[in-house]
Target: MFS transporter
Amino acid sequence: MSDSGRKGGALWRDAEFLKFWTGEGISQIGAQVTTLALPLTAVLTLDASSSEVGLVNAASYAPFLLVTLLVGVWVDRVRRRPLMIMANAGRALLVTAVPLLAVLDLLRIEYVYVAALLIGALTVVFDVAYQSYLPTLIGKEHLVEGNSKLQGTSSLAQIGGPGLAGLLIGWVTAPYALLINGASYLVSVVTLLAVRRTEPEPVAPERRTGLWRSVGDGVRIIWDSAHLRACALQSGLYNLCWMSLQTVFVLYAARQLDLSPGTIGLLLGTGAVGSLGGSLVAKGLKRALGLGPAILGALLLCCVAPAIIPFAPANGGLVSLALFVAAFALIGAGGTMANIHIISLRQSITPDELLGRMNAGYRFVSWGTLPLGALLGGWLGDVIGLRPTLFVTAAAFLSAVLVVLASPVWRLKDFPAQITARPETAGVPS
Model:
């Protein structure tokens, strides 16, 4: 970590971080195309029902519930950059298979389910590995700066990705838009291969433990820390509501408001302008308010804003579109500010040898609710209607704020001391 470009903590001058950042950012743009193109492939090409769209979204996120803890053990055993490269190469192959099957007139809803499931599994590998790799790449003293840049890139991807996806879907149809995603993953592989900073070997365990005990460590690490526990629980509740909202909104906009795929994509994309703004002011917000109040304020913003969506006129007019943009912008701004500080908090207080299992345990709790939210949103949309489901979901978002208010997180002025590993969590599996 002694590179001359690292002096002063200026990551803009850190060539190795910039390569990593570029690769991660390009794959984020591609992932945004898939987020819209896969469900719209089901809706527009295969005439899927609300429940079938819910199953597509559920399959995308089911691996966060099914394999995340195993991936966390794996990530703690090996170097993390090769895992990211492998994951993006695999995602490139899977998404490009969709247009190939469409050309051959073989595309079926069952393949969309399988593709979503496998892409989701590789996304688990990439995400757990990259969040565990970042502290070894830039040092823990630069985490807020590094996470701010990464969240800013994610926000830009959310701005351009859905809009690009919507325009591409309108131009070449949904399956072929996925070719852009496949290309983006391959470019990301090249940039990650170009990183030259040596990644340290995984920390050798004091004693080796069995696989399933190590899997259990991923959840135990979260549960034993009041700060990590509260962050994970609020994230799980928030993501449950967000996936329900996203599943139903795409159907609501396409079928009841008769909006085009391009308009839906641009709505989601322009709403993410707020995310970019949030990434730019997050560091200053922490400095002005302190860590805990900054997290709480950001959560209030992103958990109240969803109520704007069902209250907007159900006619697809200019007023509705303006309110949708405002809602998604506020959700993006609050969510991004909260994520920057929560991710930095997690990385700061967790020893390096536990980062893989901590990130996996966190993703298991927080992202494991995404498939449940997709199924719940799709089911409620069929049972009570799309707009009533948006009202129910908007009210449920507030549960995430209550979890943080009931915890010590919102009272933090700065990052607390690093947690101490239990003896049984110090090793890796045999």
Observations:
- DSSP finds 18 helices and no strands in the chain.
- Residues 8-199+209-425 form a domain with the Growth Hormone; Chain: A; fold (CATH 1.20.1250.20).
- The CA atoms of residues 65 and 364 lie 5 Å apart.
- Confidence is low (pLDDT under 50) at residues 1-9, 423-430.
